[in-house]
Design brief:
- The protein has five helices and no strands.
- By secondary structure, it is mainly alpha-helical.
- The protein has one domain.
- Helix 2 packs parallel to helix 4 and helix 3 runs antiparallel to helix 4.
- The protein is globular.
Length: about 80
């Protein structure tokens, strides 16, 4: 992962915290397309999936977490408490 990729992902993670549902959904969809993942990404997606008030945002985050690249990170992290 180069610096450009890192900056892109950091922006997406910020977008997941937006007040605008469309922005959060777009960020989740972009994160689904990544060819790599890490704990920071899956943790941010889990937080949105568990706590957002918009059902469309929750669905987008859950679908993104189902992507194989993110599932691999979740598997490596092992069981975690639900926040």
């Amino acid at each position: 992962m180069d610096q450009k990729d890192q900056l892109f992902v950091e922006q997406l993670l910020q977008d997941l915290q937006s007040v605008d549902a469309f922005t959060k959904i777009s960020a989740a969809k972009e994160l689904r397309l990544l060819s790599w993942s890490n704990e920071q990404i899956v943790t941010a997606l889990e937080k949105v999936a568990l706590s957002d008030i918009n059902k469309h945002v929750v669905l987008a985050a859950r679908e993104t977490l189902d992507a194989p690249v993110h599932q691999e990170v979740l598997k490596q992290l092992g069981p975690r408490p639900i926040a």
